[in-house]
Amino acid sequence: MSEVKGVAQKGRFKLFLERRKPIIEDWKHTFYLWKSTTLAMVGTVIIFVFFGIAIFAPLLTSYDPIAQDLDNRLLPPSSQHLFGTDQYGRDVFSRVIYGSRVELWIIFIVSIISVGIGTLVGIIAGYFGGAVDEVLMRITDMFLAFPRLVLAMAFTASLGPNLTNTIIAISFVDWTVYARLARAEAIKVKSQPYIEAIRGLGAKNTRIMAFHVLPMSISPVIVQLTLRMGTIILTAAGLGFLGLGAQPPIPEWGAIVSDGRSYLVQQWWITTFPGLAIAIVVLGFNLLGDGIRDILDPRLRR
Amino acid sequence: MRGNLLDITKLKVVFYTYRGVIKALNGVELWMNRGERLGIVGETGCGKSVTALSIMGLVEQPGEIVEGKIAFEDKILTSMNGDALNKIRGNDLAMIFQEPVAALNPVMRIGFQIAESISRNKKKNEIKQVYPEVRRMLELVGLDWKRTIDLYPHELSGGMAQRAMIAMALSSKPKLLIADEPTSALDVTIQAQILELLDELVKKFGNAVILITHDMGVAAEFCDKIAVMYAGNMVEYANTTDIFENPIHPYTRGLLRAVPKIGRTDELESIPGVVPDLVDPPPGCRFHPRCKYAMDACKEKFPSLLEVGPEHYVACHLYLKEEMKNAN
Amino acid sequence: MQTEVTTQYLIHVKHLKKYFPTKRGLFSSAKYVKAVDDVSFDIPKNSTFGVVGESGSGKTTLGRTILRLIEPTSGTIRYIETDINSLNSKELRIFRRKMQIVSQDPYNSLHPRKLVKNIIGEGLKIHFQLSSEEIYEKVKDILEQVGLREEHMFRYPHEFSGGQRQRIAVARALVLKPEFLVLDEPTSALDVSVQAVILKMLKDLKRDFSLTYLFITHDLAVIDYMADYVTVMYLGQIMEFGTKDDIFLAPAHPYTFLLLNSIPNPDPRIKKKKVIPMGEIPSPIDPPTGCRFHTRCPYARDICSNVEPEMKEVHKGHFVKCHFPLG
Lengths: 302, 328, 327
Description:
Distance between the termini of chain C: 19 Å
Mean pLDDT of chain C: 90
Helix content of chain B: 25-40%
Mean pLDDT of chain B: 89
Shape of chain B: globular
Oligomer: heterotrimer
Number of helices of chain B: 13
Strand order of the largest sheet of chain B: 6-7-8-3-9-10-12-11
Helix content of chain C: 25-40%
Radius of gyration of chain C: 21 Å
Low-confidence stretches of chain C: none
Order of helices and strands of chain B: EEEHEEHEHHHHHEHEHEEHHHEEH
Largest sheet of chain C: 8 strands, mixed
Strand content of chain B: 15-25%
Strand content of chain C: 15-25%
Largest sheet of chain B: 8 strands, mixed
Number of strands of chain B: 12
Number of strands of chain C: 12
Structural class of chain C: alpha/beta
């Protein structure tokens, strides 16, 4: 024991690092793989820029995204208004910049809700199997039987079109994907000998699911989530475009595109820039998702 | 040539991986005569399967033969091109594998697969014409041809599939049959049947056989000569009886002491330490970190192969030293 | 044999059956894989009870059913006085501390994303209220018992060799101080030199922890090295049971005899002409009528295909299920 104390005095942190060396090595290896996957890097950069823009929006533009300035309607892009102005004289650049905050918020909340519901349902169904599985998966099938956008539209239309309801609608449409994935993984994991060993130790089902099945089932869900973040933006923009999502004057990208669609021919800038923003961010998320999938692939790792 | 059928000299094979270059074979020496049965024994990662693949010319990317020569009769396999090798593979060499069901094509009937291997080797175009031969081969390996000829591989049990593999392999009357752990995936009683069958057929056709196995018992029963491999080197080569009764290399001795045997009353002995990582193998003799007789010389240079008795070769500094003493 | 001492038994198994339903077609009735079909035996305390059999013999299912990792179809399993089958799920969870399993595959039996410390400490967290320091100490102690070191606690399973992983699996089982350990082919995935170390370690641990082993394997030589008692299984049933010497020196069942005869002997001087069981192992879905071995038995007579033989005692403690026992 005295030796242990001596070690503790020598520096707890050093000992901590020493003992966790393999874990650190593992992270270094992950980082190495990340660096060597070019497209994943491109995706990462795009998403980082997107996050940066959302966080530092007020520093990037001096215009209020909502305030109308009817004297300066429909101005083409210039040094004053980088992306021009829309029919109410609002600066399109600052609307796109602030729009990133709206998109990020939607992604964040939708991810939490849909992944939460999805993995919970999926793991319970996969782990217990039998009747539980049948019931939960038939419910999931019911959700999957509708076209996604139509179902989301039906939700928002009945709940009333606003940002919160958009988020709820997308979450309720999206969780099924994660439920199926988590179920498939849980089925695979639960038959592994190490789960049987833990059962043999006397662990409760809840403990096995939370501490052992979940961590093994989550990585495909995370990959799918990053891949779907693009789709979430597209759905949100689609709802916004149809007037069922965020309501004006909230600068949601889809809504901005919708606003400018009657001016598309002469005043192309109103629709083009938010449209490009959507395209680039969706691309960024897809590249990132592909990269994460490759990096988590055990065949590539060892 | 040291053997009139096969002579491998200084064979080095590497595999390029993310972790680095795996030095799988480190100058293997091996030879055999026509009609002989040679057993290659050793533990996981000793290079016994890679040696077999090298003979068959099946070492592919990311692996590469970087050095050495494989002579088969009067031909040098290592300097042959693809077509010529293919011809030899079809006619003179054949191989059977550990997982027979996986080694057969899953979407073709057994009869057709055997017919194909017969007709390709005999350059016949009409596969139908060789079906009588297929039936004969199936009978020969102890399968009821009426029942099995139209089955798919997954419909066969492991033992039956291995019989079918043997029929395919022997259909071209190869001069050398390489059997890579042919019975390791089978139950003991089925293993005994397959070994008996192989024994019978090899006697009948007079093929030479290389039997790769980790099971000392299988090697003892089937082989005339045994080569012991460790971490990419052949360390001892002798007649089967000599290997078992008068093992010389410390690794061979350790291995034999570790094998449980029915009726054995003494304690099992194990070899301390673990098999080295072949990305970064120990210098000199690769066994030296686990060897209780290790000397300085062992850490520096791989010992050359020394004839210590009639047809008994060993690669170990211990005996080199004694030899030197005797010479002086 | 020995002086008459009343043997204490740890496990009593009576008429144990485990049938797995196979997928049934639309018009065909359900079929069952009779993995374990009416098996009874008692395991003496502090012994190594060997179970040997080929594929389809039900030996793996047997081990798992005794621990109730698989629910038996019928029959009773008693642990001294406790009827394991009648425990409810909470009682069973607590009872699991006393009986542990080490399974065959060292590559999949450890959670790949957990540190060795947490893999071994999991059982302690489930059963005891311990501080993390106490868990640390206990894990360290048990690792040393199985021949690993403290520094190995902070590594992931993939950094270990097969033999080391099997040591970790043994440590995970032993940290709970069980009395009964099921060893399901613990060394069949390992090389011989590593197998020798692990087998020796298991022998030492059995003595140090006064354990009782149920040792399942297909390898008769390993059984001969490890076991005190041997049970030979074939297609879900016990063919022969006795002490190690009964089975290896005086096998009474033709199957045992042929099994022993089939093993390749690592001694080139012995070149005996072999008698090998004929044909393939039948499917446990449709096991042969009468004696299950009659289809492969060179000594089979008419009665063997019609009447299932009774278990009879050929001499004290040596049982055989055969109409015409050898010897």
